[in-house]
């Protein structure tokens, strides 16, 4: 392993000492503050960072410390991942010998805490209120800062603590409510800003009474009342005038397989999260989905399993419902494309398009199987790929080279049902005449984008 650190950088100092304390095998390299030793990282700040034996990089102080700490030291991990640390509680928990290591030795727990609190405690120390308010914390802070390992590391890295403006003593009167955050660190001289001091001062001014605490807890447990709450369990759902009405849909899953995690994450989970969010905002929300049961995918699966297309649809629709129910997906309605209502709506859309002149008939070449007496859809044709020579390419795509194929381009095509050689015939098909609708579609999308 290689630990990369920079001169006069607080984060580098913490990483340097922690690396020594952890007993990790490896070397430490001192590089420039703007070093670009991590090839894939565009950030200007690449120190401290730890290059593992695998060649991977950990490039934040938190990730470096987590790696050095490991999974055994729970208390250290607790301090590391905690964004808020109560100084009053810490003042009681610090050991009487002040350092957390055995036999009063410097430990990784000390370094993690020191990195979290350094700037905050320097502000209290400058105001001379640290030792009177948090004596154990003050004694511990001095002991860590002046430890021989810290002194030697500071000398080697040329580190000098940044000057922090003192915090007025009046602002630390409510010591039970004094909380410091995990504040941004780094090369303080390269970034001469005061976010640390300002943030600490703001937190130290907070005073919370016992009544305010009880009220906050009660409100958190009971929730705030919502004006005219919507009953999200009520069905059927209809648009409510004066309310925001949301219609949310997921991509319809094909009915010829069992959904897996990729299907759920890619199409269902994000819509489910958004639907729950909308309901929490008391917005009238309808989240719907259903199985797509038409097409050659269903027919192909039926042939493979020796069932009728209707049996396949019934079988896999039930499986889809069971899987989504197990994952607690909050559909308001999960339907099927083969229902009477769905069929009526789909056919109504088609006839309106057709009767208004938005469809056009065109002749296309298609493979026809004389033995089965039917034109063959893409999925019912197999043959040799014209690009790579793979002998079991499908009529729409080659699984070996992944190139898209027109069924008539296949070499030695064969019917997937009877394995006989099909012939090319022409047939008429209806197409949506998009050029006629282009202007209206563009206007519609532009209005929605605006």
Kindly describe this structure.
The strands form 5 sheets. This protein has a 4-stranded mixed β-sheet with strand order 2-1-3-4. The chain has a 3-stranded parallel β-sheet with strand order 7-8-9. The chain has a 3-stranded antiparallel β-sheet with strand order 11-10-15. 41% of the residues lie in helices and 16% in strands. Helix 1 (10-22) packs antiparallel against helix 5, helix 1 (10-22) packs across helix 8 and helix 2 (61-69) runs antiparallel to helix 3 (74-81). Strand 10 (359-369) and strand 11 form a beta hairpin. With 450 residues, the chain is of the alpha+beta class. Residues 168-197 have low confidence and may be disordered. The protein has helices at residues 10-22, 61-69, 74-81, 87-93, 108-126, 130-133, 135-145, 148-157, 195-204, 210-222, 261-280, 296-305, 309-326, 340-355, 434-449, and strands at residues 2-6, 27-31, 49-51, 57-58, 84-86, 179-181, 245-249, 284-291, 333-336, 359-369, 374-375, 381-384, 393-394, 411-415, 423-432. It has 15 helices and 15 strands. The longest helix is centred in the middle third of the chain and has 20 residues, at 261-280.
Topology diagram in text:
Elements: E1 2-6, H1 10-22, E2 27-31, E3 49-51, E4 57-58, H2 61-69, H3 74-81, E5 84-86, H4 87-93, H5 108-126, H6 130-133, H7 135-145, H8 148-157, E6 179-181, H9 195-204, H10 210-222, E7 245-249, H11 261-280, E8 284-291, H12 296-305, H13 309-326, E9 333-336, H14 340-355, E10 359-369, E11 374-375, E12 381-384, E13 393-394, E14 411-415, E15 423-432, H15 434-449
Parallel strand pairs: 1-2, 7-8, 8-9
Antiparallel strand pairs: 1-3, 3-4, 5-6, 10-11, 10-15, 12-13, 12-14
């Amino acid at each position: 392993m290689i630990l990369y650190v920079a001169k006069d950088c607080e984060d580098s100092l913490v990483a340097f000492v922690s690396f020594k304390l952890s007993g990790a095998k490896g070397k430490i390299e001192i590089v420039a503050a703007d070093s670009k030793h991590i090839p894939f990282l565009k950030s200007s700040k690449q120190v401290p960072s730890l290059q593992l034996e695998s060649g991977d990089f950990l490039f934040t102080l938190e990730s470096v410390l987590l790696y050095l700490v490991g999974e055994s030291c729970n208390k250290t991990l607790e301090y590391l991942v905690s964004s808020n640390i109560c100084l009053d509680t810490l003042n009681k928990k610090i050991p009487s010998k002040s350092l957390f290591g055995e036999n009063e030795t410097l430990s990784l727990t000390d370094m993690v805490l020191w990195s979290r609190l350094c700037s905050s405690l320097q502000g209290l120390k400058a105001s001379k209120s640290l030792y009177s308010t948090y004596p154990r914390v003050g004694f511990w802070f001095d002991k860590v800062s002046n430890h021989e390992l810290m002194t030697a590391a500071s000398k080697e890295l040329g580190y000098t603590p940044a000057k922090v403006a003192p915090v007025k003593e009046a602002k630390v009167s409510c010591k039970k409510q004094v909380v410091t955050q995990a504040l941004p660190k780094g090369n303080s001289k390269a970034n001469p800003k005061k976010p640390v001091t300002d943030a600490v001062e703001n937190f130290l001014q907070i005073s919370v009474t016992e009544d305010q605490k009880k009220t906050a807890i009660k409100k958190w447990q009971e929730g705030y009342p919502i004006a005219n709450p919507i009953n999200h369990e009520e069905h059927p759902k209809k648009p409510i005038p004066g309310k925001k009405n949301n219609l949310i849909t997921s991509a319809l899953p094909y009915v010829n397989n069992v959904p897996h995690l990729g299907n759920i994450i890619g199409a269902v989970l994000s819509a489910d999260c958004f639907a729950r969010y909308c309901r929490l905002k008391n917005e009238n929300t309808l989240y719907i989905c259903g199985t797509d049961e038409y097409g050659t995918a269903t027919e192909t699966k039926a042939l493979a399993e020796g069932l009728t297309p209707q049996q396949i649809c019934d079988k896999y629709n039930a499986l889809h419902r069971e899987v989504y129910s197990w994952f607690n997906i909050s559909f308001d309605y999960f339907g099927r494309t083969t229902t009477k209502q769905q069929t009526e709506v789909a056919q109504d859309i088609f006839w309106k398009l057709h009767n208004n002149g938005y469809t056009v008939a065109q002749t296309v070449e298609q493979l026809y199987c004389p033995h089965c007496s039917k034109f063959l859809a893409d999925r019912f044709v197999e043959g040799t790929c014209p690009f790579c020579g793979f002998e079991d390419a499908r009529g729409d795509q080659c699984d070996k080279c992944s190139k898209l194929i027109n069924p008539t381009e296949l070499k030695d095509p064969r019917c997937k049902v009877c394995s006989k050689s099909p012939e090319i015939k022409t047939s008429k098909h209806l197409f949506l005449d998009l050029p006629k609708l282009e202007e209206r579609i563009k206007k519609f999308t532009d209005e929605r984008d605006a």
